[in-house]
Predict the 3D structure of the following.
Amino acid sequence: MTDYTIIGPFTQVLPMTNLAVKGPLKDDELEIIPNGAILVNNDRIVDMGDFDSLRKSSALLNPKIEELNQAAVALPGFVDAHTHLCFAGSRAKDFAMRNAGKSYLDIAKSGGGIWDTVTKTRGESQEQLTAGILARAEQHIRNGVTTIEVKSGYGLSVQEELKMLRAIKSADLSCAADLLPTCLAAHIFPKDYNGDIQQYLEEIAVHLFPILKEEKLASRIDAFIEEEAYSSDVIRPYLDKARSMGFDICLHADQFSPGGTQVAVEHAAISADHLEASGDQEIELLAKSDVIPIALPGASIGLGCGFTPARKLLDAGTSLAIASDWNPGSAPMGDLLTQASILSTFEKLSSAEVFAALTCRAAAALGLTDRGQLKEACLADFIAFPTSDYREILYHQGQLKPTQVWKKGMLI
Ligand code: NIG
Ligand code: FE
């Protein structure tokens, strides 16, 4: 009996290793292993390299051979570092209203938008929410996403946020992908809250944060920084409290107006997400910090607004992850590879920059060091596209789908 398996040969394996964490990447910096294979033991990668050499060098381990007979390009499983895929209901009405000329923030002010989803999400049971998460995660897995961050933020009370985070935790138990929860209780100010915005944040910090720790429901705190949501001044004490309790911070920053970036840098956030409204000043701030910018092209496409200045960010020396922001309001599409491909044409990103933004740099944006690269001791999360040239993947703008997805060494 052996626990070792060699999977291959792949026409090309792109391990996404030895790439700089920050700054621009050229395609000729990508390591490409022709006729490559991956040696897996249980859920981990043991070794990789040329198929025939790997067979010889691992002969004593007596590995099983999972042989592929078609052209295939292997990459690490994609990591989606920003989603809101725990939600109920549709916002097709908002979409129509926006296309008729109303803005996202106007719709929110008049009682629609995020609050509409809060009402519908509160109307579902924890089990119903779990089923919704699993259905969306299933779609993501088929598209090669093997790690998915999932935010709360449509509960907006201690009990309703708990319901969402428990739904995410229970979905994670039966989901082939790993689901990584984030508490976004500071999404918008709940319209039915009996008190002011500082009281709401205080209540969340005092009554929800300790339960997140006790029940291991989330180790990350997010907030939507915008005058119409949480202003920089209002949010600072809340983030201080979260940090003092050991939570990682990530932020919705500079989506419609600049300001969030400053808060992200001050609070040593692990990522600053959106940044569509970031200007040169914000880009410079980020470049001097270790905050990882996350572009969310799905929100730009959903709202019909400009893209995150990804090219400028990279050229200034920041890192860059790309995530789907999958949510019912600003980013209903949920197809990460399509969105990343579209961003690459508008922002002139190389394949190396895009794949890094979906794998190693996305894992870093979640603080995960055990994935996003194909190397010894990393999780055996990888995907195969039916082509012999990695450049075909972005060229087809999301229409070339992975034919195989391995999660923790298992073919899904
Ligand atoms: O990342 N901007 C704030 N939050 C989400 C949208 C949530 C929604 O519209 O339901 C975003 O775009
Ligand atoms: Fe978001």
The longest strand covers residues 4-13.
